[in-house]
Every structure is written in C-alpha cells, then in structure tokens.
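Write out the bound-state structure for NAP.
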Amino acid sequence: MPLNHRIVLDNRPQGEATTQNFKLIEVPLPELQDGQVLVCHHFLSLDPYMRGRMNESKSYAQPQPLGEVMIGGTVGEVVDSRHPKFKAGDQVVGMGGWQEFSVVDATVVGALRKVDTTHVPLSHYLGAVGMPGVTAWYGLVKIINPKAGETVTVSAASGAVGSAYGALAKARGCRVVGIAGGKDKCDYVVNELGFDACIDYKEHKDYLSLSKALREACPNGIDGHFENVGGMVLDAVMLRTNAFARIAVCGMIAGYDGAPLPMANPALILVNRMKIEGFIVSEHMEVWPEALQELGTLVGTGKLRPRESVAQGLAAAPEAFLGLLKGKNFGKQLVKLV
Ligand SMILES: NC(=O)c1ccc[n+]([C@@H]2O[C@H](COP(=O)([O-])OP(=O)(O)OC[C@H]3O[C@@H](n4cnc5c(N)ncnc54)[C@H](OP(=O)(O)O)[C@@H]3O)[C@@H](O)[C@H]2O)c1
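---
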C-alpha cells in the first residue's frame, strides 16, 4: 500500500510555539471509496491563523486536535478519482493539510475546487487568488469601503494579505501607505507592489515616533486602515485617523503567542467616531466568487505581482511556519512538496 507523510500537532505550545510541538509521521494511503478523490499536493499554505488553532483556548474556530494532521490549504493534482466531476490531472485547491496526499470527500460542497492555471500560477491560488486575497478584499471593500482619493493604510504590507490589499486599493484610486518590517520589504512594497509609501516600523522605538512618520506619509490623515498586527502599529495609526475613519481588524499577529496587546488611546474611537470591525473571511463565503474574479484579473494582467517564500519539502514546514510568525517570510509563505 502506498505511503503518505504528514505532520501532526503532537503537543500544545506553552507560550511561543516550537518545532517540538509537531511530529512527522508516515501513514498508509487508504483505498478510495465512491465520491472520494486522491490529491497529490504540490504546495502547502502556511498561515498565521494556524498558531491560534494550536491553542486549546476558546476562539472563533475549534482547536487543532492533537495527533491529527495540521490544518492547511493545499493546491495540487488529482491522481485518482471516484467522483464524476474530477479526473486524474485536474488541478485543484482544497484544505488538504500538512501532508503529501489527501483523500477528499468531493461530495462535500466546496471541499475541492478545480482551478485554471492558464494565467494564474497554481501556487497563487493559496495566496493572492485564494484565502489571503479574499481577506484583503473583504476588509477593504466591505468594511473600509474607500472612496477614490482617500488614504488607506495596512500593516504587514509585504505579506500575502497586505500585498493584495495594496493592488485592490490602488485599483479604487486610493492613496495607499504600507507599514512593514525592514528596508527590503518596504522597497518591495513601493517599487514592486506600487504603494505610494511604506514605513519601516522597526526604525521606530515607540508608537509616537511611528505616528510621526505616518503623518508625513499620510498628509491628509488616514481614512481607512487594515490591521494585521496590533500593538504599537495600531496605536500609531489610531493617532493619524480622520473623523469617521474605518478600521478592518483582520489579525493581531504581534499577540499570537499570548502577549496582551493593550490599546494606548481607545478614546480616539469616540473622538473620531470610528468604525472598528473584526472579521473572519471564512464566514463570508458569499463574497468569494466576486473577490476571486477581481484578484485573478489583477494577477493575470500583471497589476498584482505577489511574492512568495517557498520552503522545500514537508519536513521544512514547522520551521517555515515559526519563521512566518517572526516575519522571516517575504511574501506568501508556502511549502513546495512536489
Ligand atoms: N481575519 C481573517 O479571516 C484572516 C484571514 C487571513 C489572514 N489573517 C491575518 O492577516 C494577517 C496577515 O496574514 P498573512 O497570511 O498575509 O501573513 P504575512 O503578512 O504574509 O506574514 C506575517 C507577517 O506579519 C508580520 N509580523 C509578524 N510578527 C509581527 C510583529 N510582532 N509585529 C509586527 N509585524 C509582525 C511580519 O511582517 P513584517 O516583517 O513586515 O513585520 C510577517 O511577515 C495575520 O495577522 C493573519 O492572522 C486574517
């Protein structure tokens, strides 16, 4: 019987996650039943939300069960099928998890989706033309809802979500300012992604200093902000918001290891009559087709050229994932399996 390699969550982190929380195991591949499809994964997506799933604590989703394959988005090729809508050779996106192969019950709506790689490379279906891209789209379009000429900002600007946000906001005629860690990332955000400016938060020792830099980059103030990080970055942005500013709260990666992230000036929510709204993209499946259509066009026409950090081989996944939580990735973090 052919074998499959997978990474399971072996134990839960105490504070910072480590490679010791994961275990690589070998399991036999079961025989396909009616309605099932066998997929060989070419790329595995690593995403910050996985850190939250490693904890036992209450959240918007169930914790990752111990001893089971780590959750994760995958793209790959069908190698065998007992479902009439899929055949060997089809390229598909699904939630196959941290493993080389998955057996998918394709009768479950949305479990497996065929993708067209004529204009969009397969791996981008895990990034700009996938969940992270739709996340950017939802926060920008449905929460910030900017008018042309408004100034919008985003933290973790060079990443999977941030890069898509920039292209979507430019397409709506906004001034777009990013915040990212390090000169290389900031240069990429401006020169390759087409943002109007990008501020290196690591150059600033506190939020007041970062806020001063934001004032220069956003002379008309900030009308909309997309938050991926929390802490000092959010505090700095809050100080520069205009009346009736909207903040889409997408992520708080600075606190994913459990550190509290107090807010320096919550009174600004009242003073500036702000709208601050958190969201989870998987709870808004109704927008995915429209968002994916726009994102696919942006990538297909070269208006969005997303960057990828690619780790090689399944065994590299834990280290790459921990690096993502520390900003070692540069663009969408993937693991190449084939
Ligand atoms: N709400 C939802 O439905 C949803 C869906 C998808 C993603 N998200 C969230 O969106 C955010 C971005 O996700 P992504 O997949 O696009 O990841 P990403 O931006 O590609 O990678 C994460 C980036 O976060 C930054 N970072 C890490 N630790 C930081 C810290 N302590 N302070 C400041 N920045 C830090 C790093 O960039 P720098 O080097 O620039 O600091 C790192 O490269 C995450 O918070 C994620 O949880 C939410």
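---
Residues 3-127+306-336 form a domain with the Quinone Oxidoreductase; Chain A, domain 1 fold (CATH 3.90.180.10).
The mean pLDDT is 97.
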